[in-house]
Amino acid sequence: MKINLKTKEEILKIREAGKILAECHGELASRIRPGMTTLEIDEWVEQYLAGRKATPEQKGYRGYPFATCASVNNVVCHGFPNHRQLQNGDIVTIDIVVNKNGWLADSAWSYRIGEVSEEADRLLTITHKALEKGIAQAVAGNRVGDISAAVQGVAREAGIGIVKPLIGHGIGRSMHEPPDVPNFGRAHTGPLLREGMVITVEPILTSGDTGAVLWDDDGWTIRTADGSLGGHYEHTIAITKGEPVVLTSL
């Protein structure tokens, strides 16, 4: 498993893609509302990226037909955008990978549609907390397992499920590079985090306590086995000599 370390110049190129992605999510947050369809969101995202001379890396990846993954309620990942109107109380995760001049950045965000249930609000609050705790461990000298254990600790303390098959990853020229960054594991284990690594931290958690999932017949859509809700937050992170640098934030 060869981990490709990035130069400071290369990280700046990933940051350029990440800034576009952060601005896209920021604009989407002000637009998303009941009555919209995820297909409308998908079309808007593709147009937004085109206006900034960037492209959605998902589209065409292994035959995936859309610019975004749009996962609603019990769908935890890789949901297909469709014509269903979002309803008050829904939660939806929009996952986007931006390609800017051949360099990639990846970020997913879970959105509350109108007034959501206490269960949904709690899940998203905890999942976002897990993201922050994971990122805090993404420092040179730590190991991947320190990120994994931090995410797992938040989920276990809250009594919610971890979707174990879905993990973070390295990123750069390719969407998925070494190392894998699981959302469960033991501290002080796994690959050493070194300056120049660029990875994603992406907790994917469920309001049910098992985290078990099923794949739909389309080969992409992944939903909870028990019908509970799924939450998903993701940032692209650069490992530096100092604090972790979030490349997909404003």
TrEMBL record:
GO terms for molecular function: initiator methionyl aminopeptidase activity; metal ion binding; metalloaminopeptidase activity. A divalent metal cation 2 binds at residues 106, 169, 202, 234. Keywords: Aminopeptidase, Hydrolase, Metal-binding, Protease. Its cofactor is Co(2+); Zn(2+); Mn(2+); Fe(2+). Residues 13-241 form the Peptidase M24 domain. Its EC number is 3.4.11.18. One of its GO terms (biological process) is proteolysis. The keyword Protease applies. A divalent metal cation 1 binds at residues 95, 106, 234. InterPro entries: Creatinase/aminopeptidase-like, Pept_M24, Pept_M24_MAP, Pept_M24A_MAP1. Binds 2 divalent metal cations per subunit. Has a high-affinity and a low affinity metal-binding site. The true nature of the physiological cofactor is under debate. The enzyme is active with cobalt, zinc, manganese or divalent iron ions. Most likely, methionine aminopeptidases function as mononuclear Fe(2+)-metalloproteases under physiological conditions, and the catalytically relevant metal-binding site has been assigned to the histidine-containing high-affinity site. It comes from the Bacteria. It catalyses: Release of N-terminal amino acids, preferentially methionine, from peptides and arylamides. Coiled coil: none annotated. Substrate binds at residues 78, 176. Belongs to the peptidase M24A family. Methionine aminopeptidase type 1 subfamily. Monomer. NCBIfam families: met_pdase_I (TIGR00500). HAMAP family: MetAP_1. PANTHER family: METHIONINE AMINOPEPTIDASE. Removes the N-terminal methionine from nascent proteins. The N-terminal methionine is often cleaved when the second residue in the primary sequence is small and uncharged (Met-Ala-, Cys, Gly, Pro, Ser, Thr, or Val). Requires deformylation of the N(alpha)-formylated initiator methionine before it can be hydrolyzed. This is Methionine aminopeptidase. It comes from Paenibacillus woosongensis. The gene is map.
